[in-house]
């Protein structure tokens, strides 16, 4: 799934629903979320990623992040959460 724009308190609820829908699809074993076009993310977006990661683990599936730019990478790293996520070099 390729994301773009800003992930914030206004867009996070819709993103959560979309990612959950994709993750629970029977054919999905690995969900790669591409952040190449995401320049901004706030803590509500980080919370969504943690929720989706937890759901993926409960479903026996894999969530991978790809193309993390400066702001998303910084927030995940500074909170200690980056180590919980698998990163993909998928393009």
Descriptive account of the structure:
With 91 residues, this protein is an alpha/beta fold. The chain has one domain: Transcription Regulator spoIIAA (2-Layer Sandwich). Helix content is 42%, strand content 29%. It is built from three helices and four strands, in the order βαβαβαβ. The longest helix has 17 residues. The mean pLDDT is 93.
The SSE string, one letter per element, is: EHEHEHE
What average pLDDT do the residues reach?
93
* CATH level 1 class label: Alpha Beta
**Unreliable stretches, pLDDT < 50, 5 or more residues?**
none
Helix-strand category: alpha/beta
Estimated radius of gyration = 12 Å
Provide the number of structural domains: 1
Shape: globular
| CATH superfamily heading | STAS domain
What level of helicity do the residues show?
40-55%
Strand content: 25-35%
Question: What fold name stands as the CATH topology?
Answer: Transcription Regulator spoIIAA
Major sheet summary line = 4 strands, parallel
Keywords:
single chain; 91 residues; alpha/beta; Transcription Regulator spoIIAA; four-stranded parallel sheet; 3 helices; 4 strands; 29% strand
Summarize the SSE layout with pairings:
Layout (H helix, E strand, L loop, with lengths): L1 E6 L4 H12 L6 E12 L1 H17 L2 E5 L3 H9 L7 E3 L3
Parallel strand pairs: 1-2, 2-3, 3-4
Helix pairs in contact: 1-2
